[in-house]
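Weekly structure sync - notes
Attendees: PM, LS, DV (DV joined late)
Agenda: review two folding runs queued last week.

Item 1: First target. Sequence and structure tokens pasted below for the record.
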Amino acid sequence: MYVECEVAKFGAGGLVIDTKGGVLGMANPTPRAAFIPTPLILRCLRMWRDLKCVPWLHLGLKVSSIKFLHSSHKEKISRKFNINAGLIVQEVSEGSAAKKIGIKNGDVIESLNGKCFPTTVELILLEIMLLRTCQHCVEKGGGLGSNVDLTVGLFQIRKEKRCTKKLTLNVSDDLEVIAGGTYPVSAKVKKNG
């Protein structure tokens, strides 16, 4: 989620408040002035209280909603592939499970475990779904270091085809570092003539 404000370069963020005085989340000092929504913060705090950690799935991906792409890029993807929603892969980490199953920069994740992402609000639901999956795994005895399978509905932009892939991810409470991503995110458009 993004806001139209400035957070100091070395600032720690702060509350994001709507025009009615409601707390929407916490500002995150990133180049695009992102914020962490309240439901996500609350779920993490409850997990910390109950599990003494916040387990997470290392996707090995940097993604963004198609809604945040430049308008000309969105139009190319919409016209050429009839895709108007989803998560566009911006970077794939070297050695990640995502790279091993063939996910590449520019591909579009249309669903995870059957859940689609038509709006930015649904991105919050994605994060909560991933946290809930980890919490369920830990509570059922899987623990940190265990594996979880996700079904990924994917549109492979270079091959111009939809497919479903199984992504096996590690449950961890470590920081994830995305190492890789050397290709620009772009829709390939064939020229007539």
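Item 2: Second target, run right after the first with the same settings.
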Amino acid sequence: MASRRRCLFKVIVLGDSGVGKTSLLNQYVTKRFSSQYKSTIGADFMTKELQVDDRLVTLQIWDTAGQERFQSLGVAFYRGADCCVLVYDVNMLKSFEDLDNWYLEFLNQASPADPDNFPFFLVGNKIDVDGGNSRVVSEKKANQWCASKGIMHYFETSAKEDINIDAAFLAIAKNSVKNHSELAQSIYISGVEAASEAEPPRDFCGC
């Protein structure tokens, strides 16, 4: 029974180079921050275990390069993703404007079965810079972008100050568990309906 309570989810983190994707992951997984990170080459991943209700959840979080020359690596890394996290820097307008490209890039490369309902999360990072006085993308503008894409989850974070990062990834884990449970239930119900059409009714035991 214990094995049934263990879940592994693949999370892809996308966004322009320099928005703090690697810093977010390191802060979440190791509780460390460094301003000396080099740009990610291709892709790398880190894992984090956490408890969600009665399930032990392992998040396999893929940190992908923000440079355009590495985007062709997407198919191999994006396929099988359970969630996509789009990250921008609230102090860099271009990183926000490029979200459309990353959003479409993921859908094109990952080819999810139900693209209209695939779970995306938006993260506005570096809210700590200059006490918030340097930001050029307002929370309202970010929420409007989310609404235009049907994205329900938006978090503003600081990798440096460890602000809102645990909350963001906990929401990702809970959402993944919920989607996994709903999919399993849907498959089970479909199987029961198919069996009921093929066989005469009989007493059912749910043991």
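Discussion on item 2: The beta strands are 6-14, 43-52, 55-64, 83-89, 120-125, 153-156.
Action: LS to circulate a short write-up before next sync.
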